[in-house]
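Bumping with the actual sequence this time:
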Amino acid sequence: MSEQKHRPIRSFVLRTGRMTPGQERAYNENWERWGLEYSDGALDFAARFGRDGPRVLEIGFGMGASLVEMAAAAPEKNFVGIEVHKPGVGRLLHSMSEQGVDNIRVYCHDAVEVLRDCIADASLDTVQIFFPDPWHKKRHHKRRLVQPGFIADLTTKLKPGGILHLATDWENYAEQMLEVLSAAEGLENTSGAGHYAPRPEHRPLTKFEARGERLGHGVWDLLFRRL
């Protein structure tokens, strides 16, 4: 009973969706080359990428389309993606192989644990979280990823001057994000206090985002800098 009581609240539910044959093949063929194991502990960027370069961490990349597009457009950067859903990881690896993108490494694990045990403090140039699960019912808001404790942990992983970039299409979640980030110690809003940011050109417009714009739905970007 006490174990259940103290179990951490997860921001995700592991879906049971099976990988397609293509995703499974891509996973099996490419995991050794591009996959990162949580059990290996602290990540050595230079060793895993074979070079130094700006370090970008994306949490919850879904099927990975925008991450692959960003990595292809910025070959000088080293991208690390974290995603708990194996079909999404398989799809990302398939896209990387198909498009010849070699500057992404990927964890298939809980981001909270990866951050805690694998990412050194003050080691990242950018952290990005795009369209996390909004958990739109009020009773589920406690499951949202963007909470004060998590943001405090993220901030320690950024280099001074590093950027934390969030985006959501749920206005209520955007308001919570703005409130949490504005109150966080060691962060400043690059757009000025209380303001959202315009979508930077380097963040690709997703298909569902473009559809949402046509339907009049809003999208909110937040860019905060570590002091």
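The tokens above came from a reply further down the thread. The domain at 18-226 is CATH 3.40.50.150 (Rossmann fold).
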